[in-house]
Amino acid sequence: MRNYILAFLCCLFVGNAFAQETHYCGFDLVLRKIAERNPEFQDACQAQYLDAARAAKESSNSRATVYEIPVVFHIVWNTEDQNLPDEVIFDQMEVLNADFRRLNENASETREEFLPFAGDAEIEFVLADEDPDGNPTDGIDRVETDREDFFFDLLSTEITLDEVKFTETGGVDAWDPDHYLNIWVCNITANFGAQLFGFAYPPFGAENWDGFFDEIPEGVEGVVLYYPVVGSNNPVAGDDSFPGNEGGRTLTHEVGHYLGLRHTWGDGFFDGCSVDDGIEDTPTIEESNNFACNFNQNTCDDGMGDLPDNSENYMDYNQDECVNMFTNEQIDMMRFNLETFRPELIEGQIVSVEEKVINRLEMYPNPSSGLITLTGLSKGTLSVFDTFGKQVMQFPVNGATMQIDLSSLAAGSYIVQFNDGEYTAQERLVLQ
């Protein structure tokens, strides 16, 4: 993968203003401004990122632990169209969890040459059930604002979109970012004809970015989303007038940045195949796929064993229906950054390999209308969870095969999990 740094922020842009040089992510523009002021910035950032990548690869942390990250959506709205209904947020959570657990329906579309590298991140996201004051919550914070919009000013040295993150500037203050993933949803105005879809900071205070965050205020960690790109069932998805981003994958991409990933293709310093993002199991890429769903693209020759561009990677710029994977080393980097630089998000969740081993559960049919058969079981317990981690059913298991009826549950995605006290297996189930 080609990239100089996932440094300060990431934004998805599209617009006619960049006919010669299209930008989907705003932080490459910011990095250029910084590099102009500090010519040594490029080399320093690249060296530090590669150091972090090596540390992630050498880390012995096991993926046997499934980390849960609590999430709050701040819906900052001015018109009713911007005040997205709960079901859109619930759907967005389903998309995010499926993508990070490689339970996405289009996982089967990963090309054969990339199957050995595609992995399950063992990271899940749950809507917060308690706010910072200890009060119960559904994890959806709705705030009406007098502001018609927020924007990313390409001519300013300030990150103006951060105004949505503060009550005093018409947005709403973050919930403790050490313990919540904050996601702000708002109306983002196009700037110079370029529309911003999403924006995220990498791990704040991470040693591999040390010295480059001195002017960024506290309380900005998290993700900002343009309201039409939230979820795959958004009734106002057409408000952005840009086809191909209606599947809820903008958040998957931005959370990748939030956990320290860089783009697969580079961040705008130079064109070419000579730079790297520090991830060895992604091929070198000269440029993004540019939302083209072009799987014949091979922009760099890596010599023997050369692979085409990993255009189905969530960290490329591509249509939602065409992306379907993180690589194993991308996953290692995200888990390393979560454990090292955002540990408060997963306090008390570290479990040894001996205590918990997650495997795939064998069940069919899937999708199902409600009646499913499970095999390969032993004496233990079978539990069914919704996408927010709430247990909705539980069954005792006494044999190797059993049949259960889930037709009383609403249509949607569920996690079916078997546990016998030592062994755990689970699988995502879609009820129709």
Which features does this protein show?
five-stranded mixed β-sheet, disordered N terminus, alpha/beta, Immunoglobulin-like, 432 residues, 2 domains, 16% helix, globular, seven-stranded mixed β-sheet, single chain, Collagenase (Catalytic Domain), 5 helices
Report on this model:
By secondary structure, the protein is α/β, with parallel strands linked by helices. The chain has two domains: 10-346, Collagenase (Catalytic Domain), CATH 3.40.390.10; 359-431, Immunoglobulin-like. The chain is 16% helix and 21% strand. The chain has five helices and 15 strands. It has helices at 27-37, 41-58, 86-100, 249-258, 328-341; strands spanning 10-15, 67-77, 123-127, 140-144, 181-186, 194-200, 223-226, 358-360, 362-364, 371-375, 380-386, 391-397, 402-405, 412-419, 424-431. The relative contact order is 0.17.
Overview in brief:
The chain has helices at residues 27-37, 41-58, 86-100, 249-258, 328-341, and strands at 10-15, 67-77, 123-127, 140-144, 181-186, 194-200, 223-226, 358-360, 362-364, 371-375, 380-386, 391-397, 402-405, 412-419, 424-431.
What's the CATH class label of the largest domain? Alpha Beta
The SS-based structural class is alpha/beta
Strand % is: 15-25%
The beta-strand count equals 15
CATH superfamily of the largest domain: Collagenase (Catalytic Domain)
Please give the oligomerization state of what you see: single chain
Describe the sheet with the most strands: 7 strands, mixed
CATH architecture of the largest domain: 3-Layer(aba) Sandwich
Mean pLDDT: 81
